[in-house]
Amino acid sequence: MPRLAARWLLAAWFFVTAAFADAHIFVYHRFGDNRHPSTSTALDELRREFDYFKTHGYQVVPLSRLVAALKKGENIPDNWVVLTIDDSYRSFYEKGLPIFVEYGYPFTLFVYTKATEAGYGDFMSWKQVNEAKKHGELGFHSHSHPHMVSKSDAFLQEDFQKGLALMRKRTGERPRYFAYPYGEYDARVRRIAESFGFDAICNQNVGAVSRESSRFDLDRIALTGRATLADKLRIRYLSARWLAPEKWPEKGVLTDVHIRLKPETKDQKGWLYLTDYGWQRVSVKGAQVRCRLDKPLRNRRSRLILKLQKDKINTKILVKP
Ligand SMILES: [Zn+2]
């Protein structure tokens, strides 16, 4: 068979068989840094992931493109992938960036401004941030990287103001995107972040992005260590409203779970995950999930995940104030 025809056939085969399922935003931290295995992505692993996107018909698009589509209420193509990097570690500049450039993959770099301004050893300099900017977009990751849920309104306001002023001074632009430090937030923190007029806000909850996603609460999936990329790409967006718990429960004991789903959601069985406790069976009745638990939260950051139809996911994060 002529080579070109073979290629076309292969492409068509992937098109038919690839299980595309909503867009996905991934988050990286460090690159090729074996001092921190839990937050670092090995360079051969990064290439393996990038090759996977390439050979399986995924299109790596800038965050701005996804946000523009969400703003217009357009359909989000199932094969879109957005790549983000938190913390602006030097290992991104030195080891990760050349590979992004080689593949021509755009990215959004969420800058931790205090670390860069103070010249902390592990972090990029402003010169490096500006160099990286030529190949991607910049976002804001807070000034002092605090556990935001436990900070006062005044502290948070000042942290945003300081960091955003520095970004403008050192890079000449005000970032349009924000990512919570440690992925930690609640309704109050989100309100304050939103008041700074970002185009989009990223969390770090497992989930996918569809046209129904809020651009002020975009799920991002961490890609560190040896990630099972194919499984992560199968995740689909589940529209769900968490009526309970709304936030970290009093006395730290989770008792009530009440989730409202879209009215057309049929009665079915699903799964509910809680950090430290794992998965349990739950029932959807009348487009709602209600259950009573008695679970002391052992972690200062716990996640509840509702999963329906194998791979439709919605996550609620609970952070101790
Ligand atoms: Zn961070």
What can you tell me about this protein's structure?
With 321 residues, the protein is α/β, with parallel strands linked by helices. The chain is 31% helix and 28% strand. It has helices at 3-17, 43-55, 63-72, 90-103, 113-118, 126-133, 153-171, 187-194, 229-234, and strands at 24-28, 30-31, 40-41, 59-60, 80-86, 108-111, 137-140, 177-179, 200-202, 221-222, 236-237, 240-244, 253-261, 268-274, 278-284, 288-296, 301-308, 312-319. The protein has nine helices and 18 strands. The longest helix has 19 residues, at 153-171. α2 runs parallel beside α4 and α7 (153-171) runs parallel beside α8. 36% of the residues are buried. It is globular, with a radius of gyration of 20 Å. The chain has two domains: 18-237, Glycoside hydrolase/deacetylase (TIM Barrel), CATH 3.20.20; 240-319, Sandwich (Immunoglobulin-like). Bound molecules: zinc ion. Zinc ion binds at residues 86-87, 141, 145, 181.
